[in-house]
Amino acid sequence: MSKTVTYQEVVDALHAAVAERGADYVYQSPDVISGTCYNWHEKEDKPGCIVGWVLHHLGATKEQMAGGGGPRYAVGAYSTLDILKDQGWSFDEFDRIGALLNEVQRQQDALKPWGEAVQKGLEADDNR
Q1: Cα(128)–Cα(22) distance, rounded to whole angstroms?
Q2: Which residues on adjacent β-strands are paired with residue 89?
């Protein structure tokens, strides 16, 4: 499947994630031992971390997000974008989208609420 994703679509999807889950939502890993974030939660059969939520909102399936070395769906933002590129997706500003999602994920992994994580990600992008 060929799909082109724009930077603005990613920003809009980040805001939609916050609107759906709430600005104060804090991601909790299903893996209480390692705290690893997952793009997809198998048990609930739904997106897990904010990157998984955003990419699913943009049309990625759980099968498309699987990959990388290590546990299924435990893949960083850049690696997940690369997985999607290998499946025909393109991104109008790949490095900028990757940096934004990576920073939002980093904030989320530090147990910041999604609203704050998105805000800090966008601030970091403004300062690039």
Answers
A1: 27
A2: 3
What pLDDT, in 10s, does the model give residues 37-48?
A: 677 667 777 778
Range of the domain at 64: 3-126
Buried/exposed code over 8-27 (b: 16+ C-beta within 10 A; e: otherwise): ebbbebbeebbeebeeebeb
pLDDT at 46: 76
Instruction: Let me know: does 38 contact 52? Beta carbons within 8 Å.
Output: yes
Count of domains for the chain: 1
- Please tell me whether the overall predicted TM-score, pTM, comes out greater than 0.85 for this model: yes
How does DSSP assign the chain, residue by residue? --EEE-HHHHHHHHHHHHHHH-TT-----S-TTT----SEETTTTEE-SHHHHHHHHTT--HHHH--SSSSTT---HHHHHHHHHHTTEEETTHHHHHHHHHHHHHHHHTT--HHHHHHHHHHHHHT-
Q: What is the pLDDT of residue 4?
A: 95
Q: How does strand 3-5 pair with strand 89-91?
A: parallel
